[in-house]
Amino acid sequence: MFPIEEYHQASNVADAIQALSKDATARILAGGTDVLVRLHGGNSDYGRVVDINDLDELREIRMDEKGNITIGALACCSDIIENELVQKHLPMVAESLATIGGPQVRNCATMGGNICNGAVSADSACAALVYEFDLVVEGVGGQRIESINGFHTGPGRTILKQGDILTSFLVRPENYTGFSACYRKYAMRGAMDIATIGCGVALQMAGEKITTMKLAFTVAAPTPIRCRNAEQVMVGEVFSEENLEIMADELEKDVAPRTSWRASKEFRLHIIKTLAKKEIRRAVKSQGVAQ
Amino acid sequence: MAVGQSNIRKDVIAKVTGKTRFTDDFTMPGMLHAKYVRSPIAHGLVKEIDCSAALAIAGVEAVFTYEDVPKTLFPTAGHPYALDPNYQDVADRLLLTDHVRFHGDEVAIVVARDHLSAEIGARAVVVEYEELPVCVTSEAALAKDAPAIHEGGNILKSTTFEKGGSLSDAEKSSDTIIEGTFSTPIVLHCHLENHTAYAYMDDNDHIVIVSSTQIPHICRRIVGQALDMPWSKVRVIKPYIGGGFGNKQDVVLEPMVAFLTSKLGGTPVKIELDREEGLVATRTRHSWSINARAGVTNDGVLNFMDLDVVSNTGAYASHGHSIPMAAGSKSCNLYPRSVTKFSATTHYANIPAAGAMRAYGSPQIFFGIEGLLEDAARAVGVDSVDFRIKNSVQPGDIISKTGNLEHSAAMIECLEKGREIIGWDVKKQQYAQQDGPIRRGLGVASFSYGSGTYPACVEIASCRLVLNQDGSVHMQIGATEIGQGSDTALAQMAAETLGVEYGAINVVSVQDTDVTPFDPGAYASRQTYISAPAVHESAEKLKAKILDHCREMTGDASEELDLINGVIIRLGNQHKVIELGELALDTYYNKDRGGQLSAEASTKTRTNAPSYGCTFVDLEVDIEMCAVTIKEIINVHDAGKIIHPLAAEGQVHGGMAMGIGMTLFEELLIDPESGWIYNGNLLDYKIPTAVDIPELSHAFVETFDPTSPYGNKSLGEPPTISQGPAIRNAILDATGVKINEMPMTPKVLFRYFNDAGLFDSPGKE
Fold this sequence. Notes:
- The complex is a heterodimer of chains A (about 290) and B (about 775).
- Chain A is of the alpha+beta class.
- Chain A has 3 domains: about 5-50, no CATH class; about 60-175, Uridine Diphospho-n-acetylenolpyruvylglucosamine Reductase, domain 3; about 180-290, CO dehydrogenase flavoprotein, C-terminal domain (Enolase-like, domain 1).
- Chain A has helices spanning about 15-20, 35-40, 75-80, 85-90, 90-95, 105-110, 110-115, 125-130, 230-235, 240-250, 265-290, and strands at about 5-10, 25-30, 50, 60-65, 70, 135-140, 140-145, 150-155, 155-160, 165-170, 180-185, 195-205, 210-220, 225.
- Chain A starts with 5 loop residues before the first strand and ends with a helix.
- In chain B, α9 packs across α10, α10 (about 360-380) packs parallel to α18 and α11 (about 385-390) runs antiparallel to α12 (about 410-420).
- Chain B has 19 helices and 27 strands.
- Among the domains of chain B are: about 285-455 and about 605-755, Aldehyde Oxidoreductase, domain 4 (2-Layer Sandwich); about 460-605, Aldehyde Oxidoreductase, domain 4 (2-Layer Sandwich).
């Protein structure tokens, strides 16, 4: 039993927007794997919910004729992981989501929730950053498109305003075609855990040379981040272990890990550098296979 | 022959089909639900408490505070009552307190018509505290100017003993003396079923409690003590239990539900702890620090061990000083030809109360002993396995602490078997020269344990057998089934001695202190060992009565008969006389002879069979990733005769997984300044998942212990003792780094590897 004070079951997106905009403290209930956990813990900030689980139109995963892939915000992790379009074109999305919780959680949890709750450790955030997701948001003023870059503004915070609903993610073909991409979650156990550090990389190569590289981290700063300084070291250069070492040093300009009871700053920084090197090697290797 | 067979467990079909009923499956009309109001600070005094908002909430029926409860301090540890007042458990607890001693302590309780209203009510109770200085660590709690957590100061007890000769002589004859400091974490039991209990009254002076407990008879006594009632006026019923691992070898909720029903006119009241409460507000495993020294000769003879333990028992004594005492005592069984000096101090601190947990101090002490002895073996250049074989117990050794005149001891055979299974000698050579970022290592560690608590505590067990009308036998047993399989093992013994099929024994698994014969409960790996004589004696008695009745039926009083597989036969020609079912009908319904045949035995065991074993592990260390991957892990046990091989395997595997958890994953983290608990939930408290536990292997070296009628010794707790030191020793083997603290999580490995300079030139994969 949960101490729910107010419950509204939204019948469509407009209805949900209306319910949310007239109640300043109402929260969206999607998969429930965050909201219900907080309610169980007695957090009264989550007592007023707008349940969007009837909005099946937000579960769709499809590709248009131009190759734009849409993933509904309410699609659960398991459905995304098993989706053929995702497996074929966005394998790192599936790889990332497969590290969330356990099977039961993945059957409920949504990628929309994972991105919108603003968690610094969100496992899908690296994929969103390296595939440069666009976020389709509906609100009182109608529909708009937001970039994942800048979407997260701090721990637990995003640019979304009360009354906004993320309806889908949009991935453009130029951001996935020809890339090899991979994600590694570093956590204290092999499942049912939050990331100590998450690292994602996507890159394209021409021969031995890296032409494009996108490197992202979770739990390395107050929000999930792209590492532009480190990327610069590798882009336009022939892949080499020496460059990797320079990249690892340069990474210190991009990240800002902190000490908490969970882990020390020094440990996190060591893992950040180690993961960056390992994941870039892995992505380079799979480019080789693809070529 | 039932003993030694993997018969279908008595409870297994009901359990896997969801038919067994646990405490939470029962409800009663009008049942109320209660929720504790818990302290958000680790040490302080309640200045003011305002329950008016809680009482105004719809559904809230009553709120009780520390002002309403009896002012009688009571003990909570699940030990049998001690006649000697010096050996009685420390009585330091009230039902509710105005002096809170840990983050989560109980100051009030809200009773409501449903669980959620009680929860909302508990949040609405407003409590004002005066904060007191907080002691979390041993250093803080033992400081001269530390605030007294209980009247009389923070030291609960200190003891020291020296066995097997003179320490100073042993020091003089040692070529090398090795020293080390070891520390172990606060670990949580994480049994599947949380603590839950309810109570009601069905007349004016009895209280009935239904509880998920390992110790129904002890629970009856402690509730009587806490509420100042005659013990027989308390009735405790134990249904099926979803595990306890020692956390239910303590009286936790029962006195409170009994108090509440007595205050509310006998209305049923239930407390069901949620997972987060259960993790921090029941009991934990004691965290220890161990200062250890060992003296060895150049040819690898262990002369002495000198162990100095500080054990942090937290806010309340619970099992307190019994933990280091038990561990110290059991550890003497392993290397009995060397001198052991053991000193221990147990102290209070402002952290959750530590109590009994599987293996009761032994995982802690053997982390120190077997880590230290690894360093000793390496210092004198003797192979780790050879060193242990050279110094291990042999059957002729005198086991000084248990008082047994004879005992089985296959420690050396266990080491030899483990060495062979893991391929020690070949791998040792393969792993000798490694310098890359990924390295393999081999480790070994031994343990010894007891079977029960004698001579520290009384060891009483009981069994009652009744011949049913259809020739089957009902068995009532004091030993408490909590999932470990004692009902099955004891039924096998009864079938074996009585001479019936295993299926003919029906065990009454639900225990009821008004009916069930006396036994203090499930702990100390005692059930099969302590109950064996009671089962044996009652089965012999019942058999004698059955055969006597048969002679009455045949009219030949001198006939030599036996009962085999449910059939009575003549000894000479082996011919069948009568089926047991047919005889049973005669005992009940013949108008001129017989009566209901039953037999009962209550026995006291005055021996304590030492059990032995070891863990061998082969693991991989990824230095850069600060990660340890177990490639192979084997436990080898001398547990005497194995009663039920499949259940024994299950015990070993479960214990190994728990031991790996303590070694590599688990610790309750508490802010040393404020006493705030950081990770009192199963997301942040990292119990390993199925994917984190490697494939587990086991082997038994079967002996027949002369002190048990069935040859068996303990097996419940021993499997979880030796993973810590074995893994520690394997990491040392792989990297040259000694990690003398558990758990060896990635962040701990990082610190040690960094200090050792292992990241400086990691090399490439």
